[in-house]
Write a structure and sequence with these properties.
This protein has 7 helices and 32 strands. The protein is α/β, with parallel strands linked by helices. Strand 4 (48-53), helix 2 and strand 5 (73-78) form a beta-alpha-beta unit. The chain is globular and about 65 Å long.
Amino acid sequence: MKAMILAAGKGTRVRPITYEIPKPMIPIMQKPVMEFLLELLRQHGFDQIMVNVSHLADVIEGYFRDGQRFGVQIAYSFEGYIKDGELVGKALGSAGGMRHIQDFSPFFDDTFVVLCGDALIDLDLTTAVKWHREKGSIATVIMKTVPQEEVSSYGVVVTDEDGRIKAFQEKPKVEEALSNCINTGIYIFEPEVLDYVPSGVEYDIGSQLFPKLVEIGAPFYGLPMDFEWVDIGKVPDYWHAIRAVLQGQVKNVEIPGHQVAPGIYTGINVAVNWDKVNIQGPVYIGGMTHIEDGATIIGPTMIGPNCWICSGAVVDNSVIFDYSRLGPNVRLIDKLVFGRYCVDKTGATIDVQAASLDWLITDRRQELPTPPTEGQAIAELLKADNTAKE
């Protein structure tokens, strides 16, 4: 059976992570989110998978290659061009990407599934496809019910009593929402749906193809299902996803490494004197990370591989990416550290290098900057705090 993973977007809402990592490659406990999707597809018999790529395409292709080691076959549809020796992404939109593949050669010749490459899901695809076929649907949206007070964060789907889709509402006000069923970005299509997608132009599934299907009265349905769905649309979503994994709330994701104490997991060769640090789980510490005496780590917290946490540093309820060095006595509470960026749980970002704070947070592979005087340090911290609030 055939499927497609949408992986061409720039992931602007997940910056600064997506400056260097495409959304499908964002790690969930050291494993790219797209790898979990491949495992799900394989489990339900989908073994021929097209992936459209654009932004940082070589990162995705270099990791997954032809899919052989994941038990599937993968091919890539690149959207963009080369200019001055550099790959330049030019995404065609989710529906445009499907049409581009079909115009090249008619790959989609039977019922197929389309998944967004930036969510953790635990869905019974076999049951969903069976329902889709029994309905005689040309397109089916997999929906999830959310509390009424949360509908304003999602695209709402309005159906009749038979499940036929009548309308969409994009992030409606709570009092104006006509349903509490949301679009999860998981779709089941028949090849005929591509007849409604123009060739050679940017075209979107949600905002263009679906309204067209409603307009012409096509057999277009929404299927509400109860399943695990962890969306990573924004940096705060990622922060919450890591917290949920560490707290055991995501059943298809295990904490890697080995448990050295209750709720404390590590990779190999972590340098730490357990008697001289204060670590309270749930915590994951990646391999080849050094934790100096006197450091405090309070969970749920994930510290990536090859980090260096200095004496007196406090890391509380935070996510620290690979190769981060946290200086002496730095306090990080509810933060995400990625390279030169420090992000709070609302998404507010500080560029620590531009704010002259790289004496506190830096890449451990760099030569250490000279710490400022106490007066300079206070002034820089205040300046950075004001910049983040703006």
